[in-house]
Design goal:
Layout: H1 20-35, H2 37-62, H3 66-90, E1 94-96, H4 103-136, H5 143-152, H6 166-174, H7 180-208, H8 213-220, E2 226-228, H9 232-243, H10 247-250, E3 253-254, E4 258-259, H11 260-275, H12 278-283, H13 289-314, H14 323-334, H15 339-352, H16 361-370, H17 372-384, H18 394-405, H19 413-437
Antiparallel strand pairs: 1-2, 3-4
Helix pairs in contact: 1-2, 1-13, 2-13, 3-4, 3-9, 3-11, 3-13, 4-5, 4-7, 4-18, 5-7, 6-15, 7-17, 7-19, 9-11, 13-15, 13-18, 14-15, 14-17, 15-17
Amino acid sequence: MNLPVLAANAVSLPPVGMVAPFVILLLCIALMPLFAGHFWEHHYPKVAVGLGLVTACYYAFACADWHALHHAAHEYVSFMALVGSLFVISGGINIRVKGEATPAINTLFLLIGAVLANLIGTTGASMLLVRPWIKMNKYRITGFHIVFFIFIVSNVGGALTPIGDPPLFLGFLRGVPFFWTLEHCWPAWALAVALLLAVFFVFDYKNFHRAPKEVREIETAHETWYFRGLMNVVWLLLVLGAVLLPKSVQETTLGGVLSVPAMIMIAAAVISYFTTKAEVHEANDFNFGPVKEVGFLFVGIFLTMIPALQLLQSGGVSGVESPLSYYFATGALSAFLDNAPTYLAFLAASMGQDGASLDVPADVAAYALKHGAELLAISLGAVFFGAGSYIGNGPNFMVKAIADRSKVHTPGFLSYLALFSIPVLLPVLIVVGWVFLK
């Protein structure tokens, strides 16, 4: 997913009004489930695709700018190939956790997920662990269990390696050294994960002691360690290998849209699906509903956000100069735009102030050495604030969709913001930014 270099000529930029479809789509995602739930459940694909087509028609017929649409199609296919393949493959691995899900066990589970996110990506870790997470807490699971899983496993945990989260991987492809993120991000990662785990432990301790001991013992007494479908680990490794193919191979595409890595991921998912035993899929309650929902919503998001990203990058980062301001500016948009192109937009704008180009790997490597504080701020802002809403990062919506289909009561879009993102996540991220970027 590579953001195109945008012309500086203001004439080529879309009018501000073209951001309206994106804003309308965000409002629909936030409000329709509350006020028109039945309509939204049955017609969200038409709304998302319809708004995306408004933007597509503008670029195709008013601007004759097929490059922007072509690039958006490539981005979307690459995104869905990665997210979809990890969803299918992880759906063929059935994990059960032994014993009672105490607050301490739950906290350790999330910590393991945060570490694992750096090895198989936030999407891979989320899809692999969310089902056992729901099952091990089934007798007392609430919305905050899902939200903190999204905070820690689906987002903040993946800040240590380029594999961890798409923004960091794009930075690596552009020239940021592979181990730069581990070397520079680990102190902030450690503090953010520790603070979130501490808050979670307090929440979970209160929740745990509300349930009668007899119920806890009955519900968990029969659970044992159990792993099925481990052959899918091979296909999972194949997907990760595709992510790490050389840049020259990454850029080889079919029709400029379907890349070689995407083809490998799709093939791995197809093989996994047809070779996994039916009883494993049944044990996981596996179905394509969550990935279908993400697919329709994000086709609208990827199209409607084109004008927003172009206006952002062309306008530079006026008034954003310090590392802390880069952190919050990148974070504010990463919470509601896909955090990967937002990362590239701010990185390109920051490098442009020095006359450097995001398309020149040597320039990116030099920028990492000279402006490490700014790069750290942009990296942390994109990864950490991706947890700010359900649409900030790919795994977020999928985790929610899986939880919803497992009959877990999850907060809606606005409740997520009002009850968790703003009062819980934001203060933690403010502290982290203040400590490491001021």
